[in-house]
Write a structure and sequence with these properties.
This protein has helices at 28-32, 46-53, 127-140, 156-163, 166-172, 186-196, 213-227; strands at residues 7-12, 17-19, 39-43, 73-74, 78-79, 87-95, 100-110, 115-125, 149-153, 201-205, 231-232. By secondary structure, the protein is an alpha/beta fold. The strands form 3 sheets. A 6-stranded mixed sheet has the order 10-9-6-7-8-11. A hairpin with a 3-residue loop joins strand 4 (73-74) and strand 5. Helix 3 runs parallel beside helix 6 and helix 5 (166-172) packs across helix 6 (186-196). The longest helix is centred in the C-terminal third of the chain and has 15 residues, at 213-227. The chain is globular, with a radius of gyration of 19 Å. The protein starts with 6 loop residues before the first strand and ends in a 7-residue tail after the last strand. Its cofactor is Mg(2+). Monomer. It holds the Pfam family RNase_H.
Length: 239
């Protein structure tokens, strides 16, 4: 068994430096999550972590499973630590006219380098419903509920709904907002929260149309689905 990486070098983040803990208060995760252009990497030795901080890190090692470990990027040039997040889900969605014909696009990338893409078009739906459904489809594709997943999206509605606890609050109040008005899209929020229960999943926001490779790919998939001919009804849309 490979030894667990114990040092996390944060080159770009809220507080750059070498950390011995990933999660928890003051850990490396707190320095990079949501930080635009964050860059970090995990190492087995503090010497390698310091080399990375000084711009002298060695090339990525070969992987027997996939030939080589790809260096994926998020949030501009954020290097993904696949020990912390063995699965990455990228998603996007939209509707032409909002409401109107819509679609979602989803990319799932695993630590072994494998890649899956999903998309679907709908007859009549909304931007937010497609944003939600894109993330749902990605998480449903990850059958191992023990694996940690990082979901990246350009939808503040999706990311803040989970990370700020809005959706859980709506559910606790019978799908009503704090002012008593109905929360929108309760069917999809309920489905998403059910997928998250008992799992290690974090959501990260990135700016749309900013050159983020996987976000741009998801956008292309969603656009093609929305403008294509293979539309199905969005049974949960109550327009």
């Amino acid at each position: 068994m490979a030894s667990r990486k114990k040092y996390y070098a944060v080159l770009r983040g809220r507080k750059p430096g070498v950390y011995t803990e990933w999660s928890g208060s003051g850990g490396a995760q707190e320095q990079v999550m949501g930080f635009p252009g964050a860059r970090y990497k995990g190492f087995e030795s503090i010497e390698d972590a310091r080399l990375f901080m000084n711009g002298k890190a060695e090339p990525l090692k070969k992987s027997s499973a996939s030939g080589s470990v790809r260096n994926f990027h998020g949030g501009g040039d954020m290097t993904v630590d696949f020990d912390a997040w063995p699965v990455r889900v990228y998603s996007d969605g939209g509707a032409i006219g909002n409401p109107g014909p819509g679609g979602y696009g989803t990319v799932v990338i695993r630590k072994d380098g494998s890649r899956e893409e999903y998309s679907q078009g709908f007859l009549l739906t909304t931007n937010n419903r497609m944003e939600l459904l894109g993330a749902i489809v990605g998480l449903e594709a990850v059958r191992d509920e023990e694996v940690a997943v990082l979901v990246t999206s350009d939808s503040r509605y999706l990311v803040h709904g989970i990370e700020k606890g809005w959706a859980k609050g709506w559910r606790a109040r019978g799908w009503k907002k704090s002012d008593g008005s109905p929360a929108l899209n309760p069917d999809l929020w309920a489905r998403l929260l059910s997928l998250l229960d008992g799992r290690k999943v974090q959501f990260q926001w990135v700016k749309g149309h900013s050159g983020h490779e996987e976000n741009e790919r998801c956008d292309a998939l969603a656009q093609a689905a929305a403008r294509g001919d293979a539309h199905i009804p969005d049974q949960g849309y109550k327009g």
